[in-house]
Amino acid sequence: MRRDEAAMVVRHEAWAQGTPAWVDISVSDLERSQHFYQDVLGWEFSDSDPQYGGYCNALVGGETVAGMSPPMPGMDEPPHVWVTYLAVDDVEQTADAVTQAGGELVFPPMQVGAFGTMCLAVDPTGAVFGLWQSDEHTGYTLANEPGSVTWNEAMVGDFAQGQAFYSTVFGYSYQDMSGDGYQYATVTLGDEERPVAGIGEVEGDTPPHWAVTFMVADTDSAVARVTEAGGAVIAPAFDMEYGRLAVVSGPDGEPFAVMSTPEDSAEDD
In 123-216, where does DSSP find H-type helix? Predict the structure, then answer.
């Protein structure tokens, strides 16, 4: 999936091992967050299923693009952050590989009905991510289209340590794109030349994390919708080689990025 060229992807099969395959978030007020993301990204939602803690899928044109759930009753409220799940062929085997490579499990593999099996882990630098072994739910079925995920990147606490960990566990290869004052690389899998993700080193007091970028038709319009819907701007929109990007936050303060491609911007002009 060549996300850097923003080619639309519709996929209903399981994603290849190590590919970002799903993103989800736990929110403090499900209805409020649904309205926010509907206004900003045009999402519709499946019914909130009580059997799975009120979890629901976000949809664009009938295709799944993300997941959302309220806090579990009686449990401590979890951090409100977008979590990236990496596709795996065998979640138990990969969970073992995570711990052997110096990572830790936030909680062990857990079957989610007929949908698949999940696990949450943290890499040795402190970035949390998920594992997803799909069954009926293969992850997002739409990418690189307005309202869907277009890029995921591991922003790690130590660049060399992070690269070594993900290479060991998932077989990642890297194309270095570091510059003056920053370290960054794109991620490829196997013989594929097309990048599936990125990896960089966090700066300052920012904690390690996996960052998520959603595609939009026009970045400046999306930023305006964010503030109108009750979100905030973390980093104003700026132009780069691959499009126009802004970093914003949602109703619970959760950060995410929005980006339009140069082609989208030209069409809007």
Answer: 159-170
